[in-house]
Structure formats: C-alpha cells, structure tokens
Amino acid sequence: MKISVLIIDDDENFIDTLKDGMKLKEPGAEISVARSAREALDALSKFVPSIIILDVQLPDIHGVEFLRVLKDSPKLKKTPVIFISAKYTEPADRSEAMLAGAEAFFPKPVSIEELWTEIKYLLDKKK
C-alpha cells in the first residue's frame, strides 16, 4: 500500500526536516505540503491522503477549528489526523485536539521515530 501524507504547516525548516525523515522511513511515500488551511483545502479537493499531519498554529485559522472542518467533511472524516505544536503542549491543549477528532498529538520538536510509529499504527488500524 502506497502511503500519502499531507503536511499542513507553515514552518519551512520543520517541513524540510519532516519530509527528509519520512523519506528515509518510507522511500515510496508521497508527501505533499500545504502552508495554510486554504492551501490544504485546495490540495484536499484533488486527493485524499492516507494521513494528515496538522500544525495547531496556521497563518489563516487555528488548527483545532480547521480539524473540525476536516472531520465534518464526509470525504475526509475517516482520514487520520496527527496534531503537532510547538506552543500548545499543555494537557488541556492535547484534550481539545483529541476531542476535535485528532488521533494523536505530538509536541515540536517531534521525534521522527515516534511519529512514524504512530503513522504506521494508525494506517494499520484503518485497514
């Protein structure tokens, strides 16, 4: 099964690090990037990824609000979403993300090993 990942984040350094790490873990993975919710919606109108990695702090909308938009979409509601955040790392932030529909929550900087383990778990669970 070919894995496709949509990274929604506006931090170029983080995006590059994540893409490089994921390519090492899964060389055949298709990795797309959106730097805002608007870009993400445009990309998601063209394809449904296997998994979405979503930053809490987007330039155009709060990540939790955007997650609710994604989970309200019949086309996307079953797509696993992993939240990542540098600023929102308190237990209450994690709870808010999980209640909004996130399958996992990681603080930045994120361990590629741990993130990849979670991605594989979520994709295996989805089968």
Explain this structure.
The protein is an alpha/beta fold. It has helices at 12-25, 37-44, 63-72, 91-100, 112-126, and strands at 4-8, 30-34, 51-55, 81-85, 104-107. It has one domain (4-126): 3-Layer(aba) Sandwich (Rossmann fold), CATH 3.40.50.
Considering DSSP H and I runs of 4 or more, what fraction of the residues is helical? Answer: 40-55%
Could you give me the name of the CATH homologous superfamily? Answer: Response regulator
| Low-pLDDT regions | none
**Beta content:** 15-25%
Based on the coordinates given, report the CATH architecture: 3-Layer(aba) Sandwich
Please name the CATH topology: Rossmann fold
Number of helical stretches of at least 4 residues: 5
Look at the structure and give the CATH class: Alpha Beta
Order of helices and strands: EHEHEHEHEH
| Secondary-structure class | alpha/beta
Read across the widest sheet, the strand sequence of neighbours is: 2-1-3-4-5
Largest sheet properties? 5 strands, parallel
Task: Write down how many β-strands occur, each being a DSSP E stretch of 2 or more residues.
Answer: 5
From the N-terminal CA to the C-terminal CA, the straight-line distance is: 10 Å
**CA-based gyration radius:** 13 Å
- Mean pLDDT level: 91
How many separate domains? Answer: 1
Which overall shape is indicated by the principal axes computed on the Cα atoms? globular
Supply the key terms.
45% helix, Rossmann fold, single chain, 127 residues
Summarize the structure.
The chain has helices at residues 12-25, 37-44, 63-72, 91-100, 112-126; strands at 4-8, 30-34, 51-55, 81-85, 104-107. With 127 residues, the protein is of the alpha/beta class.
